[in-house]
Q: What sequence folds into this?
């Protein structure tokens, strides 16, 4: 079994989504309960990222998504949303001390 961690994160997908979607984001600006559990925040982060990433996606004449969207969705399945949430919760706690 090989180590798939990347720059201290679970994997490349988690690192990249955190960097490109959430880096610099103040969780308290978007989430009214930043001290809550990582699972609930992680679910919200996933929905937020999907809204941003798939905004304006088009479907073909049969109502099917594009190959690019399918690859993006597969990539997002690899993201450890709870890890990003725990990171944001820790940043929030540190900032409010």
A:
């Amino acid at each position: 079994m090989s180590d798939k961690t990347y720059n201290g994160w679970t994997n490349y997908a988690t690192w990249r989504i955190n960097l490109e979607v959430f880096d610099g984001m103040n969780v308290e600006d978007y989430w009214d309960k930043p001290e809550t559990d990582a699972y609930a925040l992680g679910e919200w982060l996933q929905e937020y990222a999907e809204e941003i990433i798939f905004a304006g996606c088009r479907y073909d004449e049969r109502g099917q998504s594009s190959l690019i969207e399918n690859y993006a969705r597969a990539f997002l399945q690899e993201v450890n949303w709870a890890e990003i949430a725990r990171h944001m919760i820790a940043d929030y706690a540190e900032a409010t001390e």
Observations:
- The mean pLDDT is 87.
- The chain has five helices and no strands.
